[in-house]
Write a structure and sequence with these properties.
With 212 residues, the chain is mainly α. The protein is built from seven helices and two strands.
C-alpha cells in the first residue's frame, strides 16, 4: 500500500496539518497501544513478571520508531504528534497502576511517576483548549521517560520469583539507579511543561486582544 508512505499535498492549515489517519507511523503507534492489555495479561493472568518486564522494556526501547518513520517518510502531523505521546502516557499509567497492584516496585516511586503523568496530561489538554497550541516533549521529559521505562521493567525483573536471589538483587540495584534520576528529570520536566503552558495561554490571550 504505497499510499501509506505518501504525505497528502495541500493539507496544511496554519500550525496544523490534516493527514490521513491510516499511515505507517500511526499503525505502529496503534500496535504499541494494543500491547497494553497484553502487558496486563502477562503480569496478572500468567503471573510472569519477567515476560511482562521484557514487553514493557521493548515498548519503551522502540518508542522512537514511529517518530522516526514519520520524519523519514514525511508523515508528521498534528494527529500523530498528539496520538504518539498519548499512547505513551496511557502505557505508562496502565503499567504503573498494574505494578502498584502487583507490588513489584516501590510505592513512592510508582505513585510519584503516575501522579506526574496524570497531572501533565490534564495540563496539556487545558493548554491546548485555552491556547490552541500543542506543547512539544522537552529534553528533560524524554530523559525522565527513558529512565522510568528502564526502572519499571527492571523492578519487575527483580520481583521475578523464578530467578535466583543474586540475579534479582542485581536487577533491583539497576532499577534504583534508573528510578532516582527518572524521578528528578520527570519532576523538572513537569515544572517546565507548567511554565510553557502558562506562556502559551498568555500569548494566546495577547493575540486575541490584539486582533479584537
Amino acid at each position: 500500500m504505497p499510499e501509506l508512505f505518501e504525505h497528502p499535498e495541500g493539507t496544511s492549515t496554519g500550525e496544523f496539518e490534516i493527514d490521513r489517519i491510516l499511515t505507517v507511523p500511526n499503525l505502529i503507534t496503534s500496535s504499541r497501544a494494543l500491547c497494553i492489555p497484553l502487558f496486563v495479561y502477562l503480569l496478572f493472568a500468567r503471573d510472569s513478571r519477567g515476560w511482562a518486564g521484557v514487553l514493557l522494556g521493548t515498548l519503551g526501547a522502540t518508542d522512537w520508531v514511529d517518530g522516526h518513520v514519520a520524519r523519514r517518510f514525511n508523515q508528521t502531523s498534528t494527529f500523530g504528534k498528539m496520538f504518539d505521546p498519548s499512547v505513551d502516557r496511557l502505557l505508562m499509567v496502565v503499567a504503573i497502576l498494574s505494578i502498584v497492584v502487583d507490588g513489584s516496585a516501590p510505592l513512592w516511586f510508582s505513585l510519584t511517576i503516575v501522579s506526574r503523568e496524570v497531572l501533565v496530561s490534564i495540563w496539556v489538554i487545558i493548554t491546548l483548549a485555552l491556547s490552541g497550541k500543542r506543547m512539544n516533549v522537552t529534553w528533560w521529559g524524554k530523559v525522565g521517560t527513558f529512565a522510568n521505562l528502564c526502572a519499571f521493567p527492571w523492578f519487575l525483573f527483580s520481583a521475578e520469583r523464578s530467578w535466583s536471589p543474586e540475579v534479582r538483587d542485581l536487577w533491583e540495584l539497576l532499577a534504583y539507579a534508573a528510578a532516582i534520576p527518572g524521578v528528578v528529570f520527570s519532576l523538572l520536566a513537569g515544572w517546565q511543561y507548567l511554565r510553557l503552558g502558562v506562556e502559551a495561554i498568555g500569548e494566546s490571550r495577547e493575540d486575541r486582544v490584539g486582533t479584537g
